[in-house]
Amino acid sequence: MRNMYGKMRNKTVEKPDKVKNNKRGFTLVELTIVMAILAIVTGITVSFSVLMKDVTADNRDEYEFLEQNTELKDAICAWVAENDVEGSKFTANGDTLTVTFENSEKKMTLRLSNGRLYYSDYEQQKNIVLETDLDEIDQMIFSVKGGQKLLRCGTNHKNDEGKTVITNAFVISLRLGTMIQEGPNET
Fold it and tell me: What is the rounded distance in angstroms from the CA atom of residue 163 to the CA atom of residue 161?
């Protein structure tokens, strides 16, 4: 080992007087190929980001529609539960839900109009059920399902051309009242 250490210690590193410059620059063809590849990757990235912008806008519309549907469902369920008493009769007629009460002239109507959910009582005083705008919900249709105890509420969102692009539905069950269909039973 000592012998090996001694040999290593006695060796000196020789430095060349002139550093040989064997390095060459990139050729014009190589630079052109790299620039073409970068242009293709940039084009793909830009077109993908434009495509994703449209997808996120569609998803945002759908999310807002479903969020407003949840608010609408909660409000309608609360209104139905409040009026679902013995002798109450709910009438589904397209976009209007009406409740009448046995042995009473009292009549209440629930309807979506101009992005707001309204109910009117027998004196035709209009009251807002929801303070939130429901501008994503373009149509609400009530129909009777499963005999006289289930109410189906379907909602639609239409695009700028008037074509329905998103639909949702929920069902509300009556406990004490009865349900009848007036007009077409749309599903």
Answer: 6
